[in-house]
Amino acid sequence: MESEPAVLPDDALAEVLRRLPPHILAEARRVCKAWRDAVDDRLRGSLLPRSVRGIFINFTGNWFSEFFSRPSTGPAIDGGLDFLPCMGVRVKDHCEGLLLCRESSFRALPCPQEYVVNPATRRWARLPKRPPPLMQGFDHTAHLAFEPAVSLHYQVFVIPRVPWRLPSDGESDDDNDNPLLELEWPPASYHIHVYSSVTQRWDETTFFREGEAAGIVADMQLDCWYDPSLYHAVYWQSALYIHCQHGYLTRYVS
Fold first, then answer.
1. Total tally of structural domains belonging to the chain
2. Which range of residues forms the domain containing residue 37?
3. Contacting residues for 192 by C-beta, under 8 A, at least 6 apart
4. 201 in the same domain as 101
């Protein structure tokens, strides 16, 4: 038999939930369906912090990300992330207050270090070196997945993307002869690497496409305005939403 949440007025229950740390809320959601609904009904849109402490901006041609913030009475945020053990970083992705950063300097090439950083608490973790890509010949971008209301652990997904131009297949000087150009895109399934802060290692996983393909790889290469820095992904409720070339959105469910 499911236990019901305490019978309290909505404003009183909301005040109680507001005082709980995220990991306690996550545990409360697992008690039963009634508790999950009680937390979600009062958490969505009202209990999650909405204030913006600052923004990181990546300027074209700059090695490092720049931080802009308003005067605040709260703890100062080191926008330069100078507490990291490297010369400087560029923010590659973000999710719920965490940053996915990559070392950005002449010394970092060709194997830059990657970090997951909480700029408010200055806590950070260095990611292990990525395994070799599972889809040879394609670009790959990393995306951060973090849902503090569900778990304090995060994941990093390495997603294959169609490059601006695929090289020839080696048997011809004509780039249009590459057989990869005829593959449907997005593929029916993505075999990707995922890093988990629980296991602290990269593992392989598979996401399956829902619905029809948007076209073939050759169609994606026709997008002359494609810029990987403008396309992002969101991980929400065990599904990965990817903004891709030609402005379409694809959803992958594990």
1. 3
2. 1-50
3. 134, 157, 158, 159, 160, 204, 205, 206, 207
4. no
- Indicate whether 34 and 75 sit together in one domain: no
Consecutive H or E run containing 110: none
Which residues, in sequence order, are bridge partners of residue 99? 94, 117
Last residue of a domain, one of 10, 26, 50: 50
**Residue 120 CB partners (closer than 8 Å, separation 6+):** 53, 75, 77, 97
What amino acid occupies position 193?
A: H
| 10-residue stretch averages of pLDDT, the chain, 254 residues long | 61 75 72 78 56 76 80 71 88 89 73 90 93 85 83 88 67 64 86 94 89 82 60 73 74 70
Domain co-membership, 236 together with 199: yes
pTM higher than 0.70: yes
